[in-house]
């Protein structure tokens, strides 16, 4: 057999070996482990839109508009856009530079737009010649080069794939100017382009960290075809929440928060916030509104302190250059990460919430205090931490212990004036045992109701605090009596209160019984269907008496065992009807 023939066979076999290896390891490891540890990733939005750079025939995409949407923004005919795409030729592209930049920034995974909404593939595809290798003079496979460079730098390679939106294909969503939407054959598009290209990505580029789907899809059945294909070829590969219909039950291994959103946190599942470095994902020559390194670092700390990952974008130029301001910001972020990465990687959400001076993350028996500003007296105060503090020191100088103060449940650490970092000063508290918070106490203002929602509650069993772009924050996945949510109230206005519950429930949950325990009082009701997923309605559960000042526990749970999700719970409100307002004896309710 000739040398070239054997190389051809090897080239065909090697990718399949990855697939076989990946499949075997899938069962063993907790596939979320790397996502939970790595925290910080690079998003790369790159395609023919980068050549237009926010301008089409003298028209500019408006400020804050996303330059990668230019084809739809200006209803550019497929014929003209395709003609333009022939000109994409990133001769300055160096995959090693991208991977090294991600590494220098402290980013651990990289997500490349393999196909965005314009339908153009940034990888060599046998499904469609409308791709970087066949359609342009560049002729190389960008995804292949990036995947290999990422592996050399220890960066996990991932792909973004717009599985529903495709302005080039008559069967895809979104092009209402060239094609009649009523004549769209979406099923054909799924069968002949979207699913086959996903198969190419899962077969030819080695193990992928995750596939980042976008803009949802109509039915759960359609979404499951993408999920099943990923699981079939690379079971260890993660899937983001946008694979499914935003208004339906959440699918995917983790949830994406709204783009550029700063979530309130408090979720019981993995989530990620994608953000731009300026105002657009795809490169625009007009948008120079770059985030500062301090801004990026504080956003990273904020997101990680609430249990999320941060996916931060670069928009390379058409010639393959990464805009210099992006490089400058990421290099300075990396310098901070070099010194403080221990307080980010592998940490979990802070159990004691946030503070006026900054945020906290936790790992093992360490609490990392991230101070964005110096309190006037130089003392960082942490309320609600249950653990004994053994020692405190600046992460940069572990040998120099700091003074720890403790007063009525508040821990204070005094940081010398000259030791503060302008962006984020990281103080380490060595504590005894796993960091835990005192139960969150929900207090009330005068005549104000108690509004009990996902943020202030404790969950037990399978009850889970979840997020959905349409359904927003809610409690779900509770089916049995041990799946519970509870709140610890501090009553300061005894009296009669009207109880309202707001939830969404599909027909499958209708008539399921649930219990609301308010102190010693117990309300039992049946779930009423509200229509469909996340169509919330408010129900009056009657009145209760909060007899005296002091602590009161409120708990909600299914009344009996079942298989169906009890409901999508949004909130319980205790509205004062008649309150005495007098200060009474404090005792248990
Ligand atoms: C989508 C894309 O349309 C956009 O071009 C970019 O790729 C971005 C990362 O994802 O845009 C979105 C998708 C979801 C939301 C907002 C913008 N959202 O959930 O608020």
Number of discrete domains: 3
The strand order across the widest sheet is 7-6-5-4-1-10-9-8
Any idea of the CATH topology of the largest domain? TIM Barrel
Radius of gyration: 27 Å
Proportion in β-strands: 25-35%
How would you describe this protein?
This protein has 589 residues and is of the alpha/beta class. It folds into three domains: 3-341, TIM Barrel (Alpha-Beta Barrel); 350-431, Golgi alpha-mannosidase II (Immunoglobulin-like); 441-579, Jelly Rolls. The protein contains twelve helices and 31 strands. The protein has an eight-stranded parallel β-sheet with strand order 7-6-5-4-1-10-9-8. Strand 23 (464-468) and strand 24 form a beta hairpin. The structure holds 4-nitrophenyl 6-deoxy-alpha-L-galactopyranoside (JFZ). The site of 4-nitrophenyl 6-deoxy-alpha-L-galactopyranoside has 10 residues, from loops.
Short account of what is shown:
With 589 residues, the protein is an alpha/beta fold.
Overview features:
single chain; 589 residues; alpha/beta; TIM Barrel; Immunoglobulin-like; Jelly Rolls; 3 domains; 8-stranded parallel β-sheet; 6-stranded antiparallel β-sheet; 12 helices; 31 strands; disordered C terminus; binds 4-nitrophenyl 6-deoxy-alpha-L-galactopyranoside
């Amino acid at each position: 057999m000739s040398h070239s023939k054997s190389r051809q066979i090897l080239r065909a076999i090697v990718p399949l070996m990855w697939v076989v290896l990946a499949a075997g390891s899938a069962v063993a490891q907790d596939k979320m482990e790397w996502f939970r540890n790595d925290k910080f990733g690079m998003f790369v939005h790159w395609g023919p839109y980068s050549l237009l750079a926010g301008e089409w025939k003298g028209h500019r995409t408006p400020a804050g508009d996303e330059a990668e949407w230019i084809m739809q923004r200006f209803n550019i005919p497929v014929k003209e856009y395709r003609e333009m795409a022939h000109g994409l030729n990133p001769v300055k592209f160096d995959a090693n530079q991208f991977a090294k930049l991600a590494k220098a920034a402290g980013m651990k995974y990289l997500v490349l737009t393999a196909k965005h909404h314009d339908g153009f593939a940034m990888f060599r595809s046998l499904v469609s010649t409308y791709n970087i290798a066949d359609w342009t003079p560049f002729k190389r496979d960008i995804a292949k080069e990036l995947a290999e460079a990422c592996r050399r730098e220890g960066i996990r390679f991932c792909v973004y794939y717009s599985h529903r939106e495709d302005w080039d294909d008559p069967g895809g969503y979104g092009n209402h100017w060239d094609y009649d939407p009523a004549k769209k054959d979406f099923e054909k598009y799924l069968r002949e382009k979207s699913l086959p290209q996903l198969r190419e990505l899962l077969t030819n580029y080695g193990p992928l960290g995750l596939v980042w789907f976008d803009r949802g899809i109509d039915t759960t059945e359609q979404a499951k075809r993408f999920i099943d294909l990923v699981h079939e070829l690379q079971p260890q590969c993660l899937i983001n929440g946008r694979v499914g219909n935003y208004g339906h039950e959440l699918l995917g291994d983790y949830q994406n928060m709204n783009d550029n959103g700063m979530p309130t946190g408090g979720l019981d599942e993995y989530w990620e916030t994608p953000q731009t470095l300026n105002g657009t994902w795809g490169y625009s020559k007009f948008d120079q509104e770059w985030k500062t390194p301090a801004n990026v670092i504080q956003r990273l700390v904020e997101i990680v302190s609430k249990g999320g990952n941060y996916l931060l974008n670069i928009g390379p130029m058409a010639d393959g250059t990464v805009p210099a301001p992006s490089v400058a910001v990421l290099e300075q972020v990396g310098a901070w990460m070099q010194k403080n990465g221990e307080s980010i990687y592998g940490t979990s959400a802070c159990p004691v919430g946030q503070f006026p001076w900054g945020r906290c993350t936790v790992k093992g028996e360490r609490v990392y205090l991230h101070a964005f500003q110096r309190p006037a007296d130089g003392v960082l105060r942490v309320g609600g931490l249950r653990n004994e503090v053994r020692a405190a020191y600046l992460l940069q100088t572990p040998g120099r212990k700091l003074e720890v103060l403790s007063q009525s449940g508040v821990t204070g650490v005094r940081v010398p004036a000259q030791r503060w970092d302008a962006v984020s000063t990281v103080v380490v508290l060595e504590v005894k045992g796993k960091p835990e918070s005192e139960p969150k106490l929900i207090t009330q203002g005068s005549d104000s109701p108690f509004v009990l929602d996902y943020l202030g509650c404790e969950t037990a069993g399978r009850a889970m605090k979840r997020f959905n772009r349409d359904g927003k924050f809610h409690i779900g996945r509770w089916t049995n009596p041990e799946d519970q949510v509870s709140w610890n109230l501090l009553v300061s206005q005894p009296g009669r209160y009207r109880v309202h519950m707001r939830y969404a429930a599909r027909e499958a949950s209708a008539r399921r019984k649930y219990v609301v325990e308010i102190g010693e009082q117990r309300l039992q009701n049946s779930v009423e269907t509200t229509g469909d997923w996340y169509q919330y309605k408010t129900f009056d559960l009657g009145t209760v008496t909060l007899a005296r000042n002091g602590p009161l526990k409120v708990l909600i749970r299914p009344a009996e065992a079942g298989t169906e999700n009890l409901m999508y719970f949004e909130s319980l409100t205790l509205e004062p009807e008649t309150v005495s307002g007098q200060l009474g004896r404090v005792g248990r309710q």
